């Protein structure tokens, strides 16, 4: 329910006030596609016996196929230099033919990272607001595309309204509809403004949450294979649940991680842009 509210309240003003350029249309379509995929996953969890929804492999495969096709189409209609991206302080790298799969990886990775982060009341929402705010600011400062800045502002407004009811104890939730679509929108935004690497710093909490899951699963499988018994690095993954097990309250975890993301974002704008 929360995800649908976010999409309606963000995409409607975008359709009304933003210029429907190829980039904005792609942002809208990718956002809606990931929302649809999230809806199917949520539906399977709630209405059928598939309590886990779509398998992780199936979801990621579908996501990669769609984003690869989308990025390939965008490349065809983009100006020369599409395969170049900015690392920091004017350092440019040209990925060449690898840029399309790289961009797809950023979008899919972002979508699933937000999905993993959406485990505590207000956690994903606060992180997403920060990321959209600073990506939108970068788009404005670099004059990449003012429509992208408007896109970010629309999502900030929508998610702020959502956050009012998502703070602990939450009354509404993002669900896969919200987390996957918003995450994909963030990833694609960073691709369009050519700041994918800076997004990794701005969205540092998304990176940490994802790495904690990868480390936990990998170490468990390794120790089970080697010693016959799986061991864990964290008490629970993603890492916000580790802090819960340590006795931290939800509000403390959310606020401290939000502070970290704001500090990293300010650092990015100040020293890396």
UniProtKB/TrEMBL annotation:
Classification via HAMAP family: MraY
UniProt main location, coarse: membrane
Cellular-component GO terms for this entry: plasma membrane
Molecular function per GO: phospho-N-acetylmuramoyl-pentapeptide-transferase activity
PANTHER family membership: PHOSPHO-N-ACETYLMURAMOYL-PENTAPEPTIDE-TRANSFERASE (PTHR22926), PHOSPHO-N-ACETYLMURAMOYL-PENTAPEPTIDE-TRANSFERASE HOMOLOG (PTHR22926:SF5)
Name this protein carries in UniProt: Phospho-N-acetylmuramoyl-pentapeptide-transferase
Taxonomic classification: Eukaryota, Metazoa, Ecdysozoa, Arthropoda, Chelicerata
Top-rank lineage group of the source organism: Eukaryota
Transmembrane segments: 12-40, 60-79, 91-111, 123-141, 148-166, 172-193, 198-219, 253-272
Gene Ontology BP terms: cell wall macromolecule biosynthetic process; cell wall organization
Family: Belongs to the glycosyltransferase 4 family. MraY subfamily.
Compartment(s) of residence: Membrane
Organism: Nephila pilipes (Giant wood spider)
UniProt keyword annotations, A-Z: Membrane, Transferase, Transmembrane, Transmembrane helix
InterPro entries according to UniProt: Glycosyl_transferase_4 (IPR000715), PNAcMuramoyl-5peptid_Trfase (IPR003524), PNAcMuramoyl-5peptid_Trfase_CS (IPR018480)
Lipid bilayer topology: Multi-pass membrane protein
């Amino acid at each position: 329910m929360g995800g649908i509210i976010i999409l309606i309240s963000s995409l409607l003003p975008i359709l009304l006030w933003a210029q429907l350029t190829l980039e904005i249309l792609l942002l809208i379509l990718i956002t809606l596609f990931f929302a649809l995929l999230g809806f199917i996953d949520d539906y399977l969890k709630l209405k059928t016996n598939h309590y886990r929804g779509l398998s992780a492999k199936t979801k990621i495969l579908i996501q990669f196929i769609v984003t690869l096709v989308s990025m390939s189409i965008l490349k065809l209609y983009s100006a020369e230099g599409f395969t170049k991206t900015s690392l920091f302080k004017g350092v440019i790298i040209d990925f060449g033919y690898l840029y399309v799969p790289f961009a797809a990886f950023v979008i899919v990775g972002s979508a699933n990272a937000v999905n993993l982060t959406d485990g505590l009341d207000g956690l994903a929402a606060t992180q997403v607001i920060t990321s959209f705010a600073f990506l939108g600011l970068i788009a404005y400062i670099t004059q990449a595309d003012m429509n992208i800045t408007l896109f970010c502002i629309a999502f900030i407004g929508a998610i702020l309204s959502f956050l009012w009811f998502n703070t602990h104890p939450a009354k509404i939730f993002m669900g896969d509809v919200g987390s996957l679509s918003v995450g994909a929108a963030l990833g694609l935004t960073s691709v369009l403004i050519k700041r994918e690497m800076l997004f990794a710093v701005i969205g540092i909490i998304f990176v940490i949450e994802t790495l904690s899951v990868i480390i936990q699963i990998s170490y468990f499988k390794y120790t089970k294979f080697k010693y016959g018994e799986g061991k864990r690095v964290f008490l629970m993954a993603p890492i916000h649940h580790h802090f819960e097990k340590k006795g931290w309250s939800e509000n403390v975890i959310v606020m401290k991680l939000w502070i970290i993301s704001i500090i990293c974002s300010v650092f990015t704008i100040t020293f890396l842009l």
